[in-house]
Design brief:
Layout lengths: L20 H5 L14 H8 L10 E2 L2 E2 L9 E4 L2 H8 L5 E5 L2 E3 L3 E4 L3 E5 L5 E3 L2 E4 L9 E4 L2 E3 L6 E3 L4 E6 L2 E3 L6 E3 L4 E6 L2 E3 L6 E2 L14 E4 L2 E3 L7 E3 L4 E4 L2 E3 L6 E4 L3 E5 L2 E3 L5 E3 L8 E5 L2 E3 L27 H8 L8
Parallel strand pairs: 3-4, 4-7, 5-8, 6-9, 7-10, 8-11, 9-12, 10-13, 11-14, 12-15, 13-16, 14-17, 16-19, 17-20, 18-21, 19-22, 20-23, 21-24, 22-25, 23-26, 24-27, 25-28, 26-29
Antiparallel strand pairs: 1-2
């Protein structure tokens, strides 16, 4: 099925720092801090730069998500340089080195890979917005970056952006959402990220009145670590199908997943620990959605709400669900920055 594969991560010793496949695809050379040896299967999965889930689907003129592969490889250390390259036409592989202080949102346009170098790449004080109303943010990859103290969203996927892969980042302490996907965006994968020290983690769907999102917002969330965040993991409006699998939910104060406004969400193979309300059908003033849950583990957690039927994500792409009992160890070892094994 489109050559998509999913390989299980191994515990932390095998998950050393990095060289990205997107760099190899763009002709970049290996970084000096790449690990000496990584198990072959893990290296193949990470170094191929291939997402699992909706970002892999052949649709809307894109056969998967390749980001800036084939374009120039540049390294940025300042906000001005990041803004410049992120807004240029054509493909670019943009390596973020060190800490970059922003004063607001930077617009990222089509065919970009924004990749943190090593374990210290950080964007703070602002965030990345994928696309504007006149310049689409399609075919974008964001990996291995720490996002802190954003003045608005840390990452906003908006304005019909499609084929986006958000992978192996660390997001915390923002003002609004850590990762919001909205306004008719589509075919997105959110994988192996750590969310922490924040309330509103991952919104999917702009508002109860924004019905243009119907038929869009197809997103896969897998192997993310929702580490003590309060809510929106994700909070979904209108979208179907939304696929939430093999994520680790720990001590989420308000709820885990919320499906509203007739959204269709499949929640499978996740591990909920100390989550009083793991799944809601409807939330706050939003009308009910639909949820199918299967093969999840609930430890010291409440009873999930479910309703209706949901389109199977497997009709779009192939995937493998890890044993949910392994999820806490696998996800804590593999999610976040500096965990890409190549």
């Amino acid at each position: 099925m489109n050559g998509i594969f999913h390989l299980r991560r191994r515990p932390a010793a095998a998950l050393a720092t990095l060289l990205f496949a997107a760099l190899a695809g763009a002709g970049g050379a290996a970084l000096a801090d790449a690990p000496a040896a990584v198990p072959a299967a893990l290296a193949a999965a990470d170094c191929a730069g291939t997402p699992v889930g909706f970002a892999s689907v052949n649709a809307l003129g894109h056969n998967g998500t390749t980001g800036g592969a084939g374009g120039p490889v540049v390294t940025v250390t300042t906000a001005a340089a990041l803004k410049d390259y992120a807004g240029r036409p054509g493909p670019y592989v943009i390596q973020v080195s060190g800490r970059i202080q922003l004063g607001g949102m930077i617009t990222v346009v089509a065919n970009k890979s924004i990749l943190g170098v090593g374990t210290t790449a950080e964007i703070t004080g602002g965030g990345l917005q994928l696309g504007s109303t006149t310049r689409p943010g399609n075919n974008v990859i964001i990996r291995n970056i720490r996002f802190t103290n954003a003045s608005d969203d840390s990452i906003s996927v908006t304005n019909k952006a499609h084929h986006v892969w958000i992978d192996h980042n660390d997001l915390s302490d923002g003002y609004d959402g850590l990762l919001d996907i909205k306004r008719e965006s589509d075919f997105v994968t959110v994988s192996w990220n750590r969310f922490h020290n924040h309330s509103k983690s991952a919104l999917l769907g702009h508002s109860d009145n924004y019905t243009a999102d119907i038929g869009k917002l197809r997103v896969t969330y897998h192997h993310n670590y929702f580490d003590g965040t309060d809510q929106r993991h994700p909070r979904v409006r209108f979208a179907e199908p939304v696929h939430v699998f093999n994520n680790y939910y720990r001590a989420n104060a308000l709820y885990g997943v919320a499906s509203t406004e007739n959204a269709g969400v499949l929640v499978e193979g996740n591990y909920f620990q100390d989550v009083a309300h793991p799944i809601y059908v409807g939330y706050d003033k939003s009308g009910p959605g639909r949820v199918v849950e299967r093969n999840n583990i609930y430890v010291n957690s409440g009873t999930p709400q479910t309703a209706g039927t949901v389109v199977e994500p497997g009709t779009y792409y192939s995937y493998t669900v890890d044993d949910p009992a392994t999820v806490p160890a696998t996800v804590t070892a593999g999610a976040g920055v500096g965990k890409i094994g190549c």
